[in-house]
Amino acid sequence: MSTREIDRLGVINRLIGQQIVAREAGEQLGLPIRQVKRLKKRVKKDNALGLINQSRGQPSNRKLDKIVADKIVDLLKTTYAGFGPTFASETLWKLDQIKISDESLRTLMSENNLWKPRHRKKNKEHREWRPRKENYGTMEQYDGSYHHWFEDRAEECCLLLSVDDATSKITKAVFDHHEGITPTFTFWKAYVKEKGKPTSIYLDKFSTYKINHKSAQDNKDLITQFQRACQDLGINLISAHSPEAKGRVERMFGTLQDRLVKELRLHNISDIETANKFLIEKFIPDFNTQFAVVPEKRADLHRPLTKTDTANMDSIFSVHSTRVVMNDFTVQFENQYFQLNQQQPVVVCRKDKAQIEEHLDGIIKLKLRGKELQYVVLPRRPEKVCKVNLPALTTGKPTYRPPASHPWKRQFLVTNFNKLNLQTTKG
Hints:
This protein is α+β, with helices and mostly antiparallel strands and 427 residues long. The protein has helices spanning 3-16, 22-29, 33-46, 66-77, 85-96, 102-111, 181-195, 215-218, 225-233, 247-266, 272-291, 307-311, 313-316, 407-426, and strands spanning 139-147, 157-164, 170-176, 200-203, 236-239, 319-324, 330-333, 336-340, 348-349, 353-358, 364-368, 371-373, 375-378, 392-393.
């Protein structure tokens, strides 16, 4: 089962155990109530196997036949060149008896560079107050704020903050030097270990959380390290298009820049380590007691970590990079050279693409096809090797040795024997 199906199983089991209702399960899974009830029925009947999609690996019943699609594309390039999707759909049915909807035709034309979608004109947007989520853990609003939190007693630093949308509780707050990937990974790794996985996280479009280049709109593989980690955990990320959209965390920063700054001054705190301890032990509990609101429903929708999540926690919250295995079975990464051992848990060939994981504690791991590779750090750059006799790194040393009667060795023995007789005769 995939990680997504394992997460679904946990939610459905909570539904079967009457800990939550079908509507809340549907919000967590992003499914309608009818589909949730179907999954519940299938899990009761087939246990975990009931969550595996029955149509997995099967072609869609509504897929357009390739012969028909090729014919349509050919007509659009010749007879109906320049036609728009709607008019082309009507003409194909009227003259060629080919029935295809205008939206399906629009997709087909876009895939073949025959139609460029038009950008809709953005009118003045009307903003409305969005109601709170019903349950604690449904959505966490997260952001970072650079401010002189210690006033003139120390340099400017960043406060990383998550606020629950249903209760306005400060679920976690940490001071750090910046809002980069390492502080963000450290923040959320501690969060999910302590509270579990929230259903979604609402944040802005800062480069740590989202790739904002226009190419990322077309290539869904272009994701940040944080997006990849949240995908592995099954946490949905929601990008806000304006500060007002995630107003709870933005207003919280306004409150903290007034109250927290003064609290730190009163307690004579001027360093990050002491401030973080003060947040956990004193400020956050008192603040939540005073300002948190009661949610509409009392269920906690944080999902517990699965065994797979716990086992791969360090790997999930690490920076992943890809490097090519060189001809001498070395890997170069950030001016370091890693020499792979001759014996590996998986076969390693030249030009294989190894995954490098930079863990939060500074440990670097090399992986290939899910297996961790063994290596030695070289003190300097290895000398260039023109030819390496070793074809690949394997899982063990070869134990088979051909006997003397083997055809390859027999020819060698006969040749050496003839040379020895010839030398004896001349002597």
